[in-house]
Design brief:
Two copies of one chain form a homodimer.
Chain A: H1 3-6, E1 9-13, E2 16-21, E3 26-27, E4 30-31, H2 33-48, E5 52-60, E6 67-78, E7 83-90, E8 95-104, E9 114-115, E10 129-130, E11 145-149, E12 166-173, H3 183-187, E13 207-214, E14 223-228, E15 231-233, E16 236-244, E17 250-259
Chain lengths: 263, 263
């Protein structure tokens, strides 16, 4: 199955959607946060009646595991440019994600353009480090996405972290599945944590909150992605993502706040 | 009245809080977004039973004007480290803000520290450009906060914008009122928009979404603040804020997505 099929939602009326958390999207036995949030975004998008997520925020309350789930949505505003929607992702016994988002039509946008940044310089995908799923490490999730890391940022995997809180690389879905604006919500949370490149005793960083701003519909092909962290303080860190399509257009920005578990 | 009094909320039971949008916090006749969101955050914080906002996201649905309002909160998770709360700010006839946040205790945080950025270099407050409220421009809001802009970033006010999408400056509340972690939610939206320093025909930028991450309780004194925009594209722009206290500690990060009105 592909990304679209594995995040499908079925409208049941009154803003309620049934869904299924699928096998294979997990990291350390928990479904990837971007996978869960893109499922939520798909339901919110349907409820909004607009084609594109523009801003999506999710708070992660409990880990997700394969099985049936539902997304409960409420449209809180239908505006001229944007619709605002709240949602929760729930299983029979717990709430996994609480979300809010704004949805619109990114095919019609216009206005002044000023871009004060450039896509990250990356060697071609074939010269980057492919992240390959195994039964142990990397996790099964890496079998569902095709990540190629900048060689300078891939040292953490063999015990030689760069010391810089940065991960750059290419992203695409498997089997040539196109990346739409919902898949960008997956892409912003798909890369290994920047903190893996720090020389710190941090093995995992559960996401508290993730906000993705979708800035354009991607052209076909690879995404160029860069994730950076500037502040590891007080038991938290942020991770900022900037995603560009193959034509050099900014397609998404993200920030997540993550916890650094104690001990 | 000061900030704390003008954002006071009164618990009415079942997660409902009554409040009053006060005069004087408006810009172009609409209450400042950070002012409204800090009122919401105050109610959410009370509902959470935790002392500090850690991450607060607000979507701005309709402009606020002086008068009675209420905040309807729901605690969706009481965790060990954080409580997650949703909320809406409503008046008799419309919903103004829809919010979600995580609340915790920033007095007890610990863990590894890595800071890959420095506070902005600013001349002393007395050598910066004070933003003074008048009946016309700057707006009344500027009478409630004490902003001192870096002279290089203050040219927009007299028609000589720097051309760089950046606004740096000092922030404090009036009359020596201390800045607590709720006031940081005000501070992240208090400065003139970065786009005022662009040579673009953009007079205002309504906020779609604002996320503030509070990283530490501020020490007494001025805050050092820097706001930057990297991407004006497709009818939207983001504005990123980094706020430091007087001892050089990072206290908050923010990002907002704003619309560039057409025409």
């Amino acid at each position: 199955m592909g990304f679209a099929a594995d995040t499908a939602v079925h409208a049941e009326g009154d803003g309620r959607y049934t869904a299924e958390i699928r096998n294979g999207w997990d990291i350390a036995s928990n479904a990837n946060g971007g996978y869960l949030l893109s499922m939520v975004a798909r339901a919110m998008r349907d409820a909004s009646g607009r084609p594109d997520p523009v801003s999506v925020t999710g708070h992660f309350l409990a880990p997700g595991h394969p099985g049936p789930a539902e997304v409960l949505t409420e449209v809180v505003k239908q505006g001229r440019t944007l619709a605002t929607v709240t949602a929760s992702l729930e299983t029979a016994d717990r709430r996994l994600v609480q979300a809010i988002g704004a949805f619109g039509d990114l095919s019609t946008s216009s206005g002044p353009e000023l871009v004060e940044a450039a896509p990250p310089a990356l060697p071609p995908p074939g010269e980057c480090v492919a992240v390959v799923a195994t039964d142990t490490f990397p996790p099964p999730f890496m079998g569902r996405v095709d990540l190629r890391l900048h060689p300078e940022d891939a040292g953490f995997a063999d015990g030689t972290p760069s010391g810089r809180l940065r991960v750059r690389g290419w992203f695409r879905l498997r089997d040539g599945e196109p990346i739409d604006t919902v898949a960008l919500v997956l892409a912003v949370d798909a890369f290994p944590p920047t903190v893996f490149n720090a020389r710190l005793p941090v093995a995992w960083t559960p996401t508290v909150e993730l906000t993705a701003h979708v800035r354009a519909r991607p052209s076909p092909g690879w995404l160029r992605c860069a994730f950076t962290t500037r502040f590891v303080t007080g038991g938290f860190l942020e991770e900022d993502g900037v995603l560009w399509d193959d034509t050099g257009t900014l397609v998404a920005q993200s920030r997540q706040l993550a916890l650094i578990p104690r001990g």
